[in-house]
Design brief:
alpha/beta, two-stranded antiparallel sheet, 9-stranded mixed β-sheet, 257 residues
Length: 257
């Protein structure tokens, strides 16, 4: 039986990256479905839409947009309704326009799509094509196109039922300059990179990432991708309990109890 694949993203169902992800998925399986937001949901994180009705917009065979829905909404709708008779084995989220690295993954809708896939019982892989924002705000998709299917196959071969989702970033270099696929830890920043950023319009402001917090670990995802020209993959655990802190808290007590 062919691997069943569900695709989502946070850039929207009409974004160029999801077409590339569809090609990646079809290189692996002929049982591919797309359920994605009808518009841009970048930075939505793992938000669910509660208390407001959602709807499907059928865009073609096995292709659906969720009107006003987040990536997490789309995965739930896909896994529990559209594919309810046989949920997907693999959820692919992306390919995102721009890198998802370090603590920025915490607010990434792309990462949330893969994470929710695992929570729903599938293997989850988020994929992003990085770019040099000082050069262009339009990604060159060549590395995602060239290496995407091979990366997914390598992850599937290594997966052993671990309770994780995988975050993949393709470097902004030529396909010939890619040195390989490297498993790395995520960069834990010294502080959040998200900042208030004033607008030119009086009284208005943005949420933005004006600079990268320093220092950076040369062995973590941010620097390995930027300086090493490697495709990076990071396994993120869904069990978020800190064992050491849990053990220390075990000695807590209330007076008189």
């Amino acid at each position: 039986m062919s691997l069943r694949i569900l695709i989502t993203n946070d850039d929207g169902v009409d974004a160029p990256g999801i077409a590339i992800m569809s090609d990646i998925a079809h290189a692996i399986s002929d049982d591919v479905w797309i359920v994605a937001p009808d518009g841009n949901q970048s930075g939505a994180g793992h938000r669910f839409t509660f208390g407001r009705e959602l709807s499907f917009d059928t865009r073609g065979p096995r292709r659906f947009a969720v009107t006003g829905g987040s990536p997490a909404d789309c995965v739930v709708a896909g896994m529990t309704h559209i594919l309810g008779d046989r949920p997907a084995d693999l959820v692919l989220s992306g390919v995102n326009a721009g890198q998802n690295l370090g603590d920025i993954v915490n607010c990434s809708g792309t990462a949330a799509g893969a994470r929710e896939g695992v929570l729903q019982g599938a293997i989850g892989i988020a994929m992003s094509q990085s770019m040099d924002y000082e050069v262009s705000h339009k990604p060159d998709w060549a590395n995602a196109r060239r290496y995407g299917a091979e990366v997914v196959s390598a992850i599937l071969a290594a997966h052993d039922g671990d309770d994780v989702f995988y975050n993949v970033n393709f470097p902004f270099c030529t396909t010939e300059e890619v040195v390989g696929l490297t498993a790395v830890a995520h960069q834990r920043f010294s502080r959040s990179p998200i900042r208030y950023y004033p607008s030119d319009n009086e009284g208005q402001f943005f949420m933005a990432i004006p600079e990268t917090p320093q220092p950076l670990d040369p062995a973590a995802d941010f620097e390995v991708l930027r300086r090493g020209n490697a495709i990076t993959v990071t396994p993120f655990a869904l069990q978020q309990t800190h064992p050491g802190a849990l053990q220390r808290l075990g000695s807590l007590s209330l007076k008189g109890r």
